[in-house]
């Protein structure tokens, strides 16, 4: 009988203390299964090991996601955000000018546009 796959939705409802407790139980279970495997148990144990390892990964994923959302809340109104919380994008997009920087004009350009507006003609050639 394979070990039931843990639903991530159920894990998200749990508190951090409960998650660490379930993580400990899964790790203990994994250790027991590995000892049995070394002792020469049936091949069915290897599939159980796989399921338990995946469950451990799911619990760890939910824990890290919760921690990251908590930290994101702390840095919400700050000017600088830690690099691991910033948007990944691509290197070129991260270095591109912002909309504000793109729209800025020099004083000379502003005067030129004010004094020499684009002429509109009624008849096109």
UniProtKB/TrEMBL annotation:
Pfam families: Ribosomal_L29. Keywords: Ribonucleoprotein, Ribosomal protein. InterPro entries: Ribosomal_uL29, Ribosomal_uL29_CS, Ribosomal_uL29_euk, Ribosomal_uL29_sf. One of its GO terms (cellular component) is cytosolic large ribosomal subunit. The keyword Ribosomal protein applies. The keyword Ribonucleoprotein applies. GO terms for molecular function: mRNA binding; structural constituent of ribosome. GO terms for biological process: maturation of LSU-rRNA from tricistronic rRNA transcript (SSU-rRNA, 5.8S rRNA, LSU-rRNA); translation. NCBIfam families: L29 (TIGR00012). Belongs to the universal ribosomal protein uL29 family. PANTHER family: 60S RIBOSOMAL PROTEIN L35, LARGE RIBOSOMAL SUBUNIT PROTEIN UL29-RELATED. This is 60S ribosomal protein L35, L29. It comes from Coemansia spiralis.
């Amino acid at each position: 009988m394979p070990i039931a796959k843990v639903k991530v939705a159920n894990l998200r409802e749990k508190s951090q203390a409960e998650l660490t407790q379930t993580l400990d139980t899964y790790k203990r279970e994994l250790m027991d299964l590995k000892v049995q495997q070394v002792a020469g148990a049936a091949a069915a144990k290897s599939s159980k090991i796989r399921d338990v390892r995946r469950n451990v990964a799911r619990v760890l994923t939910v824990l890290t996601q919760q921690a990251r959302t908590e930290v994101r809340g702390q840095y919400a109104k700050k000017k600088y955000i830690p690099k691991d919380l910033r948007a990944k994008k691509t290197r070129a997009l991260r270095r591109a000018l912002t909309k504000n920087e793109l729209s800025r004009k020099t004083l000379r350009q502003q005067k030129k546009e004010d004094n020499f507006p684009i002429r509109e003609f009624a008849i096109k050639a």
